[in-house]
Fold this sequence. Notes:
The protein is mainly beta and 419 residues long. It folds into 3 domains: 1-231, no CATH class; 235-281, Rubrerythrin, domain 2 (Single Sheet), CATH 2.20.28; 286-418, no CATH class. The protein has helices at residues 222-228, 283-287, 405-408, and strands at 7-10, 17-20, 27-29, 35-41, 48-56, 71-74, 77-89, 92-101, 106-112, 115-121, 142-145, 148-159, 164-169, 179-187, 190-195, 202-209, 236-240, 247-251, 257-259, 266-269, 274-278, 297-300, 303-316, 325-334, 338-345, 348-352, 372-385, 396-403, 413-418. The strands form 5 sheets. Strands 3, 4, 5, 6, 7, 8, 9, 10, 11, 12, 13, 14, 15 and 16 form a 14-stranded antiparallel sheet that branches.
Amino acid sequence: MEKTPFFKTDCPSCGAPVEAYSATAVTLVCGHCHSMLVARSGKGRSGYFVAKSGRDSALLEDFSPLQIGTRGFFDDRKFTLIGRLQVHYDVGAWNEWYVLFDDGQTGWLSEVGDLYAMTCLLAQKRRRGPKNFKSVKAGSSSLIFNGQTFIASDVRTIHYRNTDAQGELPFSLSGNQAIGEVCDWRRGNLFLTLDYSTFPMDSYFGRIVSLDSLKLENKRSDDEIHESAGRLKGEILSENCPHCGSPVHWPRGVTSFLLCQSCGSSLNTTKDTVALMEANAQREEQENLFTLSIGTKGRLNDTEYLIIGAVRFAEISSYNQNQSEYWTEYLLYNTQQGFAWLIESGKRWRLSETLQTWPDFDSSGNPAGEMLIDHYRGQVEVAAGAFYWKVKQGDLLHYKDYSGKKSYGWNVILCSELS
């Protein structure tokens, strides 16, 4: 059934019609010119008028199959995606989709790489968190919520001034707040987010979901995803690479650095052109390190995947600082199933996926009943292709491998990864 807008007006910037479907909408983004608008009380149409906030919003498209207008079911309640935030942090970004349920309630569908979580704002606000934000450690800090122990899974500082928007939102993005402090906590498939930058503290509670479980309709097609991935809505500048002559594209005013997709040279963007920073003479030599090439297609578990990224790690043990062992991780992508990892270690190959449901943990912070079989560090040597976060040479990650046979069966390894 087609929804009736709660509020209609014309964009004061370009004159195109702008509609809001939620009574709680505060911020709207014009779908035509991408100007960010703020709803304010006044004597205008329907008791409101919409003024330009003085900030335009451009949204970097990604590999998401979701879009404004996608519909689905959560706990037998029908919902529609009516707004989107692309939230930026130090090494990446993720999507927060504003959800309007048919009963008038609202929520958020978080899309963080290969994980999705549906949460709703809790009415009861916290006066303070269980710990100071700076003392929360992912993988070890815990809290008690509704009588259950939750483990910190993510600790991020958000850069609000870089946040991009689409559709309608329940708050204004035109304030002066520069950063936010957010912690995610998990138990099983339960998901809790605490926003340490608000007072009283906002809390969002829900659970991890799969796209299949939401029975989604009106998703983006494969062709739409491939066409828009990595592009920016708005003006795209184009120039030839000063090193190899191939065309390069970049969004005006968004980035001052990019890599030529053809020769891998480092380029510096100015207002209207690009300048060569460093020619990547090692590109061909680096590509030879990978057994599989970026762009290779193949089938695993009856799903066709495309290799979109590859990263080679050097293992650094606690007792031997020499980098003598290596492995490669290939990021796999399917437009409707999302991401997975194919890991090459010597002559062994493993398929790896992010757990939607976490195991129970013991008092030491390890998966209950599982045996620790390895503990090591990995340093990024070479990365190529696309990822859903920034991968840099020299990045150091900490790993713990556990036997997963108690919870998941034989020949399964549980791996925790901390940056």
